[in-house]
Every structure is written in structure tokens, then in C-alpha cells.
Amino acid sequence: MKRKNESKKGPDTEVRGKPVSASRSEMTEIVLPAQTNPLGKLLGGQVMHFVDMAAALAAHRHSNSYVVTASVDYIDFRNPVNLGEIVTLKSQVNRVFHTSMEVGVEVYSENMLTGEHKHTTTAYVTFVAIDEHTKKPKLVPPLILKTAEERRRFREAAERRKTRLALRYGK
Length: 171
Description:
27% of the residues lie in helices and 34% in strands.
């Protein structure tokens, strides 16, 4: 059975595109003792949890639906985050495919005593939009690109997807 928006095309059923700016999200946390290792550094698993949450915010905003994490293609820990520092995560949808979308996340730390900022982590997470009634994947609105940076991210996301699918299916 075809979904309503796939069975016929018309002004009332077409999925309208959304600009990248509609998905941009920012999340801020403070690093507490329970989130650190014995060296007082933020646990990698905690960073991954923060990344997943920030990425989900962007995916929800773009798709206006429930989303599930399908894959994490890449996560790069560049600098450690210390106990007591402020962590800011910035996310946005880089590319939309059919029912999935790639979200890029950048993580920054801030030492609140010195004001020093560091780029600590970069990650790319793929989400699938889920229909609230059928619980099956649903179409995602196309992405409207406005800047050179958005077009670059869009192109690079296609390459990451090609690699991800080749690894998954051995092609």
C-alpha cells in the first residue's frame, strides 16, 4: 500500500523542502563528576550520548517526526573535555536522502574560568524518520541549500553515504 504522499502528486500532498537553518540546534551541558573518568575527563560514551541527543534534535526539527538513529559514520575526539567545563553541541541536517538524513555535530568545550574554547569532537549521524501511526520509515522533506558551506556539507554527505552503504552491503 502506498502512502498518501507517494500515491499522487499535487499541491496538497507534495512534501515541501526546508532550509538547513530550520534544523540547526544547539545544546549546552556542564561536565559533572559522575560523567568523568578517574583523570577528570568527560567519558567518551557520555560525549557520544550528547552527540546522539543533539543530532536527534536537528533531525526532529527537519522531519517534524519521530526519528531513530540508524548509524554513526564517524566520530572524532580531538581534545579532551575537563570536569567543570561547559560543553556546547551544534547540529544541523547535512543531507536528506529518502527516509533518512545525515546530521553533522560539532562539540566545543569552554573553560568557564579562563574563557578558552576548544573544538573537541566532530560526528556524523544518520537518522530515519518514523511515521507516528505505522511506525515505519516515512519520507523526509527535501533540504533547501542556501550557502556554499551547506552545499559543501551536502556533497560530502553523499560520499559518506556511498562509503557507509558499500561497507554495509560489501559493494
